[in-house]
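Dear colleagues,

I hope this message finds you well. In preparation for our joint manuscript, I am sending the MFS transporter (Luteimonas terricola) sequence together with its predicted structure, so that both groups work from identical material. I would be grateful if you could confirm receipt.
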Amino acid sequence: MLEILRERTFRRLFGAQVVALVGTGLATVALALLAYDLAGAQAGSVLGTALAIKMVVYVTLAPLAGATVPPRLRKAVLIGLDLVRAAAALMLPFVTEIWQVYVLIALLQSASACFTPLFQSLIPEILPEERDYTRALSLSRLAYDLESLLSPAIAAALLTMISFHGLFAGTSAGFIASALLVMATTFPVVHAARAAGSPYARALRGMRIYLHTPRLRGLLALNLCAAAGGAMVFVNTVVIVRGPLQGGEREVAWALAAFGAGSMAVALLLPKLLERIQDRSVMLGAASVMVGALFAATGLWAATQGRLGWALLIPLWCVLGAAYAGLVTPGGRLLRRSAQADDLPFLFAAQFSLSHVCWLLAYPLAGWVGAAIGLGSALVALSCVAVLGLFVAWRAWPCHDPDVVEHSHPELSDDHPHLVDHQVLEGKHMHPYRIDELHGRWPQ
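The corresponding structure tokens are as follows:
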């Protein structure tokens, strides 16, 4: 997997991603502690709202990011977005009211909503080979796991010397370092022409490709399953640790790190696993594990009357992290299979936006239900959401999912260039099927 770091452009972009995510991980811990400092036992509700705001800006801004930024400006835009995130993070230690948290989170996450799909769309341009791209996805997944493993561990160490407010300075430093690495990177030259039409039309084009491709509809349902487990961890860990477990700031960081440990372990195994087993089998298996772990957590929470001990919490969080990685890591492979090169930026932006609709449902459910009715009720609700995601994915994504599909074009004349380019037998022909102008719907 690490051999792809020999590619200089990817190595620098990957470094930018790593340092930015380490900073983001520090902010995750600090934000949870800030919410508890401002709201006490209602911290879950505050976090749920803050993260729901994050999802709203992701859903609304991400599709436009890939569609509005021309290739020649991607570098400057990514640097500017990193600097905006650094400035917002530096302001967070000075907030005294909950509404101020919401405003700054909206600013920071608006920049992230534009940054991430632009970054993701660069990877297939830098690494066009399927084998290299698969390894890059897993390595990128490991980088995201730094946010939930190494960053909480670093935060736990730093909290022995500084207050949690100082962690926001680390977040800002991560974004500045990311901007410097992007500045030092030579971006690939895109020779293909960009899709025609307005930015909104290009954004909708990515959505249309996504929603008309069966495997991607399955991916969206699996994102719902992943969000159900992830939201429980990200929103309610601080409530469980600071409440029933009577832990401190460092214990919150270590509990979040347990989720990341499970995720990272699976992400390391996935490249070889995906060479032997189909993406669908791996992802549906991970969804089944996620559903089982959530129902197990629900039963244990009821059996212990809300006094889930460390001996149960840490293994459960590890299993949830492992299932989460199995659900989200292969997603980029599916996107790459499902669009022409020109459409990949729009498709990545659509995935980024639509997947966060799932989080927009899960975060408030985890936070508001947990604060209003109890964490046991939140677990029941999230378990049901995960089951729904698994069932819809199983139905929407067919077992037989080839790249090359036989189909016909009765609406085209026999001398149409598309039919001339492909051998037509008895009115049908075969080629890698992608949703585009000539292929508006998936053949039955």
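For the figure legend, we might mention the following. Residues 109 and 420 are 48 Å apart (CA to CA). The radius of gyration is 22 Å.

With kind regards,
E.M.
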